[in-house]
Amino acid sequence: MLRRTPMPPRKKPLRPQRVPSKPGQITRAPIKRRRKKVSWHHGSAAGLRHMVNVKSVGCVLDHCGRYAEAHHPLTMRRGSRASDFDTIALCFDHHSHQSPLPHGEAIHKGTETFCAKYGTEPQLLEKTRAKLRRAGLDDGAESSARVD
Fold first, then answer.
1. Cβ(96)–Cβ(107) below 8 Å
2. In whole angstroms, what is the distance from residue 28 CA to residue 133 CA?
3. DSSP H stretches of helix in the chain
4. Which of 127, 74, 129, 118 is nearest to 93 (CA)?
5. Please, are residues 51 and 87 in contact by the beta-carbon 8 Å criterion?
6. CA distance 82 to 71
7. Is 14 helix (H, G, I), strand (E, B) or coil?
8. Rounded to an integer, what distance in angstroms lies between the CA atom of residue 17 and that of residue 39?
9. Is the four-CA dihedral 114, 118, 122, 126 of positive or negative sign?
């Protein structure tokens, strides 16, 4: 005969089981669904339209021109993210930390080297605005940051 050690007492009591209303019916506890977290920025409608325009003009760097992502410069407001109207058009390779390009070729993968090679963030912002004006997508939004 096999002897078992007694189970330790439960810290929390068991949940009460649902009793089926009809014989033979299987009942299950309701599934709790969590709300999905929204990962994109909740900006104004005009700001979101402006970012779509920025993305549509392509990468601001002269030799690239591929589909762009909107980069919010950090230097515009002393450490905080700039507004949606102060965005720079950069492709994935020149924007992301996960870029396959070597160090200094992407703005989030060697910022000082990138700025020395391609220009500072305010200069790239002016290039983006000029590209928007040439494409006829400039909506005349006032900049919330000063460009030196």
1. no
2. 60
3. 45-56, 92-95, 111-118, 121-135
4. 118
5. yes
6. 9
7. coil
8. 38
9. negative
Contact 51, 70 (CB under 8 A): yes
- Which residue is it, tokens 């020149």? 94
Can you count the helices (H) and strands (E) in the chain? 4, 2
Residues 118-129 have pLDDT tens digits of 999 899 999 999
Scan for tokens 């002269």, then name that residue.
62
Structural class in CATH, domain 47-135 = alpha beta
- The SS3 call for residue 131 is helix
Q: What is the pLDDT of residues 54-86, one digit of tens each?
A: 989 999 998 887 888 889 887 655 656 678 888
Q: Does the model's pTM come out above 0.70?
A: no
Decide: residue 125, CB within 10 A, 0-12 exposed, 13-18 middle, 19+ buried: buried
Q: Which two tokens stand for residue 47?
A: 């700001």
